[in-house]
Fold this sequence. Notes:
Number of domains: 1
Number of strands: 0
Strand content: under 5%
Mean pLDDT: 77
Shape: globular
Order of helices and strands: HHHH
Structural class: mainly alpha
Low-confidence stretches: 62-72
Amino acid sequence: MPRRSFDKAFKIGVVKLVTEEKFSVKKVSLQLEVHANSLYRWVQEVEKYRAKKPKRKNSFRLFGLHRNTNTIWHCCLNKN
Length: 80
């Protein structure tokens, strides 16, 4: 099975679900079919990046995400 790759916008969106929206890593990983260890690593990478940069009001805008992206992630998590 080939290894899957995810673009930066997807990773940041998933991290936002865990860090800002307070969804559990387990729930996000199951709904999006991404291994929990990958999510934990992405969260650590973003936290490391944030520690190096001065704080901004909305650091996710650095990665090109907009507030409307939030609804897309909620739709992914709310599917049954």
